From TrEMBL:
The chain crosses the membrane at residues 9-30, 42-63, 84-105, 125-144. InterPro entries: DUF2798. Keywords: Membrane, Transmembrane, Transmembrane helix. This is DUF2798 domain-containing protein.
Length: 159
């Protein structure tokens, strides 16, 4: 896990990229019904705006309250693994909430069926939570932490 603000920022850049790209692939696949090169292309082309929104949400809206909640849930003697799992879970839940709204607006801007916004958004929250939480805890989190520490050993990013 990051140990200072600069490490946290670099870690967030990497984690947001992995999560946004994966969740974009997943959502486009759900809407198209098949995994094709067109799905990959669409996810890649939509990545910059989704990535930017996720970074802004993560850094300025979600991170601080999520960490406060996580540390209230954790006993002072919690293991590092328990801390990582709790913080990650507390981050995923609001990110799914907000990024599902982002995806809903993106889809409805093409269809112009704005009367369906709450139905589509609620459906997206459920579908995204089913994918995002296990992906974050089992794949993205461990992978990004490993990559992060390989590229930036402890003490190389100074506060």
């Amino acid at each position: 896990m990051p140990r200072n603000k600069r490490e946290s920022f670099v870690y967030t850049l990497i984690m947001c990229f992995v999560m946004v790209f994966w969740m974009s692939l997943y959502n486009i696949y759900l809407h198209s019904g098949a995994f094709t090169m067109e799905v990959l292309k669409s996810a890649w082309l939509g990545l910059p705006l989704g990535y930017f929104c996720a970074l802004i949400l993560d850094w300025f809206v979600v991170s601080t309250p999520a960490k406060k909640v996580a540390f209230k849930l954790l006993p002072t003697f919690a293991s590092p693994l328990r801390k990582v799992l709790t913080i990650s879970s507390c981050m995923v839940l609001p990110m799914v909430f907000f990024m599902s709204l982002y995806g809903t607006i993106e889809v409805l801007s093409k269809t112009q069926e704005w009367n369906l916004i709450f139905i589509v958004w609620g459906s997206n929250i459920l579908k995204n939570l089913i994918m995002a939480l296990p992906f974050q805890l089992l794949i993205a989190g461990p992978l990004v932490r490993k990559i992060f520490r390989r590229i930036f050993p402890v003490g190389t990013i100074i506060a």
